[in-house]
Amino acid sequence: MDAIDSVSEQPALPFGMLREQTSGTDRVGSTVLRMAVGAQLRKRREAAGVSREEAAYLIRSSGAKVSRMELGRHRFKERDLVDLLARYGVGDDEREEFLELARQANVPGWWQRYGDLLPSWFETYVAMEHAASVIRTYEVQFVPGLLQTDEYARSVFRLAHSDPEEVERRVDLRRRRQALLTSSNAPQLWAVVDEAALHRSPHDGGLCRAQLALLLEFNELPNVSLQIATFCRGVHPATCGSFTILRFPVQDLPDVVYLEHLTGALYLDKASDVEDYVDMWHRLCTKIDPPEESGSTLERIRTEVCATS
Amino acid sequence: MGELATGVDRTVAHSARMWNYYLGGKDNYQVDRDIAEEMLAIYPGYGIKARTCRYYLFRAVRFLTVEEGVRQFLDVGTGLPTAENTHQVAQQFAPESRIVYVDNDPLVLAHARSLLTSSPEGTTCYIDADLREPDRILAEARASLDFREPIALLLLGVLGHLADYEQARGIVRRLLDGLPPGSYLVQCDGTTTDASYVKALADYRETIGVPYTPRAHEQIVAYFAGLELLEPGVVPIHQWRPEPGLVGVPAAVDESGGVGRKPLTPG
Predict the structure, then answer these.
(1) What is the per-residue burial (b if ≥16 Cβ within 10 Å, else e) of B31-46?
(2) Helix and strand tally (H, E) in chain A?
(3) Contact A190 B115 (CB under 8 A)
(4) For residues A80 and B111, what is the distance between their CA atoms, to the nearest angstrom?
(5) Could you count the other beta carbons within 10 Å of the beta carbon of residue A249?
(6) I need a surface site. Which of A143, A253, A262, A273 has the fewest CB within 10 A?
(7) Maximum Cα–Cα distance for chain A, whole Å?
């Protein structure tokens, strides 16, 4: 149920179930947990027939802050939660579960140690990627970040950054993100890459054998699916640039579309916006070669590219 | 299953995506949710029916894997991925299990190929075929299944997409004839036991991309002709080997099904 505006129509989830969906996986980072706890908070408030303003009054605050809490964009204060849950008629056992989830939601993620490198918009992305259960990504010009070799990533970072130490730390961060794919409880990565990206190289000497070999290796992982939009299939339906759609392992949370541009990023979670991108994804992945073909396509490109380098 | 081979259409409600909505999935469009809600208004049982079907699939596949030692599954009418898909259930109990998913919908196939991926010990394969092409399904399944060993044929909620009952029966027979002795049929479909369910399907026959025809309970029983019916026979699926301890008393649904085995010796 991905419509954020239909959230209120869904029955409230028992907290135990919410916990089942979100714990046991240390990957579910604070961002998404906060979104999930917030969504539950809203349902409980609506089920109790309490207005946002009344809730705000209870916690000596504003309706806007209640909104932000319910969207997971605000840290939870235990005292606020205790007051709200009491008013919503939530029992002691459930309240304890809820408070525990809220505590977990306030724990910072590993990526925060790279905070000096990451603009806040990208830090949010790393947090969400870490929590996602399915990552669908379409790349026009580059090999998707999660599938890059260190050398490839280094060359990409050098395009924009001159300090070698900073470049190395970025490579290190990318490697940590990549480790997600082979961790236990790894997300599913479904990547569509334009063939052009596999012919272009960010460094001299053509796309190196190592990067193509790594793609072939990733392609064998059960949780990685790679589809290549080959030249010979002609124009495909993606009439836009690169985009990523993240899905979270919590039923209440909508898919989020991530769009990066030079100076920032957009996160779309409004149902109609998400649907436009999901529809684009659907038309794209049904039009191009299926993932079974990717192995032989990569071999072909390797022959072509490596022969000229 | 149906005639949607041309592509993805977000302007027409689509049965696989509506089913995904009823199951609480996120792979559906606004048009699917709108029509699904309208049909729910006529027949409120859709949500529980969808979940009961998935839970029936889980119990049947687990039973076949654990109790009967089945390691090969031919799942016709895959649908969009959800929790506990056939290969996940089978490979959870027998990782070497081989599953062939069959569907003719491009969206379903794209999702299956990328997301319904096998454990390293087993295999999953995908056949782009229509239910009305049983010979092609069997021929292509031979590439990945061993036809000297039993195969479980899953036809869950798909035969209703064939309006003509005799045609549906003929296809079941054709598929079973092509499978080795000792193979299994796992089947279920919606029944005409509830007037509002029948009305919802009739009212929306032209609206949804792929119409669905519910059957009389006896018609579903007849799909199993010539097979040894395993306990408890063809029953409303919430009564098929239920586990009341796990989920409380299961809710009644207008959907019948069962599991049958093809005799080892013909006749």
Answers:
(1) bbbebbeebbebbebb
(2) 13, 6
(3) yes
(4) 43
(5) 18
(6) A262
(7) 71
B8 touches A at CB < 8 Å: yes
| Tokens 């002709």, residue located | B225
Q: What is the model's pLDDT at position A160?
A: 84
Q: Chain A residue with minimal CA distance to B125?
A: A292
For the entire predicted model, the pTM comes to 0.83
Query: Would you call B114 an interface residue with chain A, using a CB distance cutoff of 8 Å?
Result: yes
Q: Give the separation between CA B246 and CA A175, rounded to whole angstroms.
A: 42
Quote the tokens at residue B228.
């040894």
Spell out the residues 6+ positions from residue B248 whose beta carbon is closer than 8 angstroms to its own: none
Which chain B residues are within 8 Å of A134, Cβ to Cβ? 115
CB B77, CB B103: distance < 8 Å: yes
Contacts of A272 in chain B (CB under 8 A): 30
Per-residue pLDDT reduced to its tens digit, B184-228: 999 999 999 999 999 999 999 988 878 999 999 999 999 999 999
Rounded distance between C-alpha atoms, residue B18 and residue A265, angstroms: 32
Across A116-242, the runs of DSSP E, i.e. the strands, are 134-139, 188-194, 224-229
CA distance A294 to A221: 13
For residue B108, the distance in angstroms to the closest alpha carbon of chain A comes to 9
- For residue A58, count other CB atoms closer than 10 A to its CB: 16
C-beta of residue B65 within 8 angstroms of C-beta of residue B97 = yes
Q: 10-residue block means of pLDDT along chain A (309 residues)?
A: 31 42 46 78 90 93 89 85 92 82 76 70 77 92 93 90 90 90 90 92 73 92 94 81 88 82 78 92 93 94 74
Structure tokens at B3: 């005639």
Q: What does the alpha-carbon distance between residue A256 and residue A277 come to, in Å, rounded to a whole number?
A: 10
Look up the ipTM and state it. Answer: 0.88
State how far the Cα of A232 lies from the Cα of B171, in Å rounded to an integer.
38
Radius of gyration of chain A (CA): 22
